[in-house]
Design a protein that fits this description.
7 helices, 5-stranded parallel β-sheet, Rossmann fold, alpha/beta, two-stranded antiparallel sheet, globular
Length: about 200
């Protein structure tokens, strides 16, 4: 997979998909802090969770860190985490070089935020940095009727009705890159600007 944009020309006929967390905005510390406070609230005790900037604290890490939590408690933690996120917006930071790519191409290309982030949190984050109007449209996390996460790239491609070979995707998560490939986006059209 291509790691950066050096020497690559993006023509105006290309449609650009940008991820948010870890690609445009570093939300790891805010995300971790909200999770930690939510866990403390549910367990009613101070946990010994330590922030690791190399790991995105998510549901899987939560389950591994607290295997004794019931499904109901896990859902409560996630619910509280979502409500606490606003308190930590001040520790999110733009990834300036990646945002520069968005700002440059949003003037000439269709640009879409394609994220697994929930709508409320995505909009709060984008509004915080004044990025909302840089996108032609925004595609948020979608859950199917079996409560499974839908491939965000397949969802966006289906709604837009465009062939995957005209899409250039900016994504930092390995599993999401695989989802992009599964959706038909060519490997050479997937950029990880964090490397």
């Amino acid at each position: 997979m291509i790691k950066n944009l050096e020497g690559i020309k993006i023509t105006t006929d290309k449609i650009l998909f940008f991820d948010m967390d870890g690609t445009l905005v570093d939300t790891n510390l805010a995300n971790f802090s909200a999770y930690k406070n939510a866990v403390n609230s549910v367990l009613q005790t101070e946990t010994n969770l330590v922030y690791n900037p190399e790991i995105r604290f998510n549901r899987s890490v939560l389950k591994a860190s607290f295997p004794h939590l019931t499904d109901k408690e896990l859902e409560k933690v996630i619910q509280i985490k979502e409500s606490l996120y606003d308190e930590f917006l001040n520790v999110t930071t733009l990834i300036d070089e990646n945002v520069a790519v968005l700002l440059k191409y949003s003037k000439s290309n269709q640009t879409y935020l394609v994220t697994n982030c929930r709508k409320d949190r995505a909009l709060k984050t984008l509004n915080h940095f004044g990025l909302t109007d840089k996108f032609t449209n925004i595609f948020y996390r979608v859950i199917d009727d079996k409560n499974k996460k839908v491939n965000k790239f397949e969802n966006a491609l289906s709604i837009l009705g465009v062939p995957p070979n005209i899409v250039i995707a900016f994504e930092n998560e390995e599993t999401e890159k695989l989802d992009a490939i599964q959706a038909g986006i060519p490997c050479e059209n997937i950029y990880d600007l964090t490397k």
